[in-house]
Amino acid sequence: MQTEHLTDSYSRGRPIRSGNPVTTPEDFLFQTGRNTAALPRTGATLAPFAYSGIEDTDGGGSGDVFMDSAFINAVDPSFTPHNVRKAMFEYDVTGYSSPSITSATVSGTLHVNNALDTGVRTINVQLYTGDGVMTLGDFNIASTAAGSFSYHPPTDSQVAFSIDVTSQVKSLLTAGAQFVGVRYAPANTQAPSVFVDFQQPTLTIAVPEPGTIALLALAAPLVLRRRR
Ligand SMILES: [Ca+2]
Ligand SMILES: [Ca+2]
Predict the structure, then answer these.
(1) Using CA atoms, how far apart are residues 132 and 173, in angstroms rounded to an integer?
(2) Which of 81, 182, 184, 209 gives a 20 to 30 Å CA spacing to 227?
(3) Integer Cα distance of 191 and 113 in angstroms
(4) 39-48, 133-142, 179-188: range with lowest mean pLDDT
(5) All domains of the chain, ordered by start, with CATH?
(6) Nearest-CA neighbor of 190 among 128, 122, 137, 130?
(7) Which ligand sits nearest to residue 182's alpha carbon?
(8) Helix, strand, coil tally for the chain in percent (to 5)
(9) What is the rounded CA–CA span in Å between residue 46 and residue 90?
C-alpha cells in the first residue's frame, strides 16, 4: 500500500493547519490544483487535507471560534458557559468510488491535554461530507455515527483507536463527496484531550490490488487442474 502520510507535496496530504480558519493562497491553489491525473487511485493511508478544533463557547450547539489545536472537551452542562470543543479532519477522497473500495478505516491516537479525572471520556466518531476547508459550520454539520472510543485519564495518558468506516465512506462516495469529514465529539462531560499536530488521525482506504486480481484469475484454473 502506498502511504501518503504527512507528505508536503502539492499532490495530496498537505494539511491546512489547525486554528487557521482561512485557507491561504497556497492552500487554495493546492485545493483547486489537486492532482487528479492518476485516477482511479490505489489504496492509501491518507493524512488529513484540512483539520481544526472548533469551540462552541456558549453551549448553544453551534461552533463559534477555531482553536489553536484540535481539542475535545465538554464542560458539565450545569456550568455556564457550557463550553464544548470538537476536532474535525477532512480527507481528499477524489478518485475513489463506492464500488472500488474494499474497506475504509479511521485510525489515530488521542492524547490527554488536561489529566483531571472527569471519569471515563467517551468520544463519538461522526462522518460528514467535507469540502477541504474548515468552517465553523463543520462543528454541527449533518453527520453519520461511526462508533466511539473511550479512555480514562489520569490512569490513561492516551488512547489508540481504529474504527471501521467502510459503509459510511461508501455512502459519502455514492453521494459524490470529494472529501470525507471525520468529526470527534465528546459524548459526555470531560476535561480536554487533544490530537497533536505531528500525529493526526489517518483515513486508510483499501482497494483490490490489480496484481492480486490477476494472480487469482491465474490460480483458479491451476487448482482445478491439480484436482483432476
Ligand atoms: Ca455557539
Ligand atoms: Ca468543511
Answers:
(1) 15
(2) 209
(3) 8
(4) 39-48
(5) 2-227 (2.60.120.260)
(6) 122
(7) 2
(8) 20, 35, 45
(9) 10
Q: How far, in Å, from the CA of 44 to the mean position of ligand 1?
A: 36
CB-CB neighbours of 36 under 10 Å: 13
Which of 184, 211, 214, 159 lies closest to 54, judged by CA?
184
pLDDT at 10: 32
| Of the candidates 110, 62, 112, 109, the residue with the CA atom closest to the CA atom of residue 85 | 62
Tell me what the mean pLDDT of segment 40-55 comes to. Answer: 85
Q: Quick one: average pLDDT of 151-166?
A: 98
Q: Which listed ligand is nearest to 58 at the C-alpha?
A: 1
Of the candidates 41, 52, 49, the residue with the CA atom closest to the CA atom of residue 14 = 49
Grid cell listed for 144: 453519520
How far is ligand 2, taken at its centre, from the CA of residue 39, in Å? 23
Distance from Cα 150 to the centre of ligand 2, integer Å: 25
